[in-house]
Amino acid sequence: MGGFQSDFASHARKLSSPGIFCQAVEWAPTFGGVITILSSGDIALLRVLKNGDGVWNLEGIWAECTENPVCLSVNNRFRTVAVGSENTEVSLYRLDETTGTVFVQQRLRVSNREYPDATTLVGPATKLAWSTDGYTLAVAWANCGWALWSVFGGLLHTSLGERVGLADRIKVSQMAWSANDCQLVTVMSFLSPKKNHSPTLERSAAVEVENERCDSEQHQCPAHIAVFQLARSALTTNPTSYVAMNMDGGRIAVSGEYGFAHYSCVTRRWNMFGNEVQHRDHMQQLQHPHCPVTVQTFP
User: Fold this and answer.
1) How many domains in the chain?
2) Would 249 be classed as within a structural domain?
3) CA distances from 194 to 118, 138, 169, 197 (A)
């Protein structure tokens, strides 16, 4: 590791510069430290180790270069780091225990087979999320589109392959996997089409829940998407600050700056709470340990 330590030391001047800071950081216990993207565009594995004299030292391993890295996500099960870049690609990094290098094993990219001129269309890869079992990586791009890749590099699904007219209109701003990896929950917006302008889609926001599998035995069930429309005027006057779902998926709570509401998937109705009496009556109902909600009353 001595050679790589000296290589890290050669970057010390850059690291001490006032203009250098961590753009993204993730704890990587199976790598023995943290993975960081620096504002200089460098990617490094940082470890704090104790020497023979009992003194703690910072050891750094510089990773193979990726052009303009934007975000990262660590897969501790397979000791893999996914790094999204401005050129739409996602690089999968692994640690070589023999040489001590952090190298790019493969690069994930969409091509014209998925959508015409896809690399120009989607923009930088800005959101990455590994499934809890480590087998699947969800990727979302800044302009539009999302995709699922296997940890081994196979493209499993992409929104760019969906029906013509919709593929380039879905923009994902946030996403997360459920605890058992049966669901990928995304916060989406629908972009206005270049032609056939649709005011309805432009003025709406959506929460999407897509079921991929039913249970661990992988019994098949029909996939469905539940879309809850929120008026743009309501979002402007009362910005949404938190969305949560209870454990059985039966209710969705939405908290805004001036109040909150919840949706029942059984009755398919919204319940709005607009005064202090309702506030007190329904506080206990939403105080679920896995569904914390910041509550204020509507004016």
Assistant:
1) 2
2) yes
3) 16, 27, 10, 7
Cα–Cα dist 276/165, whole Å: 46
> CB atoms < 10 A from the CB of 100, how many?
15
**8-state DSSP, 31:** G
Q: Is residue 22 part of a domain?
A: yes
Return the structure tokens found at 72. 């990262």
8 A C-beta contact, residue 75 and residue 81: yes
Q: Which of 58, 59, 19 is nearest to 38 (CA)?
A: 19
Rounded to whole angstroms, the Cα distance separating 156 from 201 reads: 28
Instruction: Concatenate the DSSP letters of all residues of 100-129 into one string.
Output: --EEEEEEE---TTTSTTHHHHH-SEEEEE
Q: What is the pLDDT of residues 184-213, one digit of tens each?
A: 888 877 766 554 444 443 333 334 333 333
Give me the domain span that covers residue 238.
234-298
Q: Which residues contact 270 (CB under 8 A, 6 or more apart)?
A: 261, 262, 263
* 157/73 same-domain check: yes
Q: What is the pLDDT of residue 226?
A: 57
Q: Which of 171, 204, 230 is the last residue of a domain?
A: 230
Pair of tokens at residue 129: 């999320």
Torsion sign across C-alpha atoms 204, 255, 214, 144? positive
Could you read off the pLDDT of 222-272 as tens digits, one per residue? Answer: 444 555 555 555 666 666 677 788 877 788 887 776 677 777 877 777 776
DSSP letters along 158-205, please? EGGGS-TTTGGGEEEEEEEE-TTSSEEEEEEEEPPPSSS--HHHHTEE
Residue whose entry in the numeric block shows the structure tokens 């979002």: 235
Q: Is 290 left (phi over 0), alpha (psi -120 to 50) or beta?
A: alpha
Alpha carbon of residue 251 to chain centroid: 23
